[in-house]
């Protein structure tokens, strides 16, 4: 686990305005965010586009994707809520009364800044930030932390960052079990003796991250390698998914292209292990379960996806362990 400590000085003015100090340590749980309903998709998309409203065509496409996944009912936000609640329960079990969990979302309410404001209003003076994404990139986790740190400094909160936890033993254990279970299901569907390929994947980012030595790609490969070894899988590769539609190049190959190559090589089944995600996001429910599944049918191969981590006790313990270690590093 990688952590980084930045102590935020508490100015005289802030001390005068702040409520009575709260001895609890705040835990800011951050994630990308999702709309609360179908009616909120345009606002959400506009925020992602930095205040630029989507074209009618872009809005229609994204709305259609959400509708295909949720059918007008919107449970996706509940996934993150349950994870935050699960982390609070895990922390309470490990250190009763010591931590208070707050949410902060990158592109939806409550925004990251709202989460920090809520801590400040409760008198929290020390906080730990963790993102519901195990792998660090300056363009993902780094951007969350930057916003949180800036707001924490403004509020006079000492803030400790957890940059990554991609090799935490409990995270690996949870992923190994999922790969084993899904692989057994794939074997049952394809029959014994068939060639099967495990495809680990994560959200693509612009290729330029390689130019700055960003650790994202290597961390993903490290997680994939350790999980594959633990699951007894030797025939696997890493691929990318969900690339943005911008003019600059993004990391590839895309999973759809990789699946085509795998099918042409004679494989009869693919196990999708989107380890870059910890919940059932649109990138999982649509990009894998609908788009990639349709491609698999066209290619004449079976596609099985691992279950997402969600509130798996091992994942909740991963987060809680990471928070406690960061607390010991920064505040004890």
Written account of the structure:
- This protein has helices at residues 12-17, 41-48, 56-70, 76-94, 112-121, 141-155, 169-190, 216-231, 255-264, 282-285, 287-299, 313-331, and strands at residues 2-6, 22-31, 99-105, 124-131, 158-164, 196-203, 236-241, 269-273, 302-305.
- The strands form two sheets. Strands 1-5-4-2-3 form a five-stranded mixed β-sheet, sandwiched between helices. Strands 7-6-8-9 form a four-stranded parallel β-sheet, with helices on both faces.
- The protein has 332 residues and is α/β, with parallel strands linked by helices.
- The longest helix has 22 residues, at 169-190.
- It has three domains: 2-35 and 71-164 and 312-331, 3-Layer(aba) Sandwich (Rossmann fold), CATH 3.40.50; 38-70, no CATH class; 169-305, Rossmann fold, CATH 3.40.50.
- The two termini are 18 Å apart.
- Helix 8 links the parallel strand 6 (196-203) and strand 7.
- The chain has twelve helices and nine strands.
- Helix 7 packs across helix 8 (216-231) and helix 7 runs antiparallel to helix 12.
- Helix content is 47%, strand content 18%.
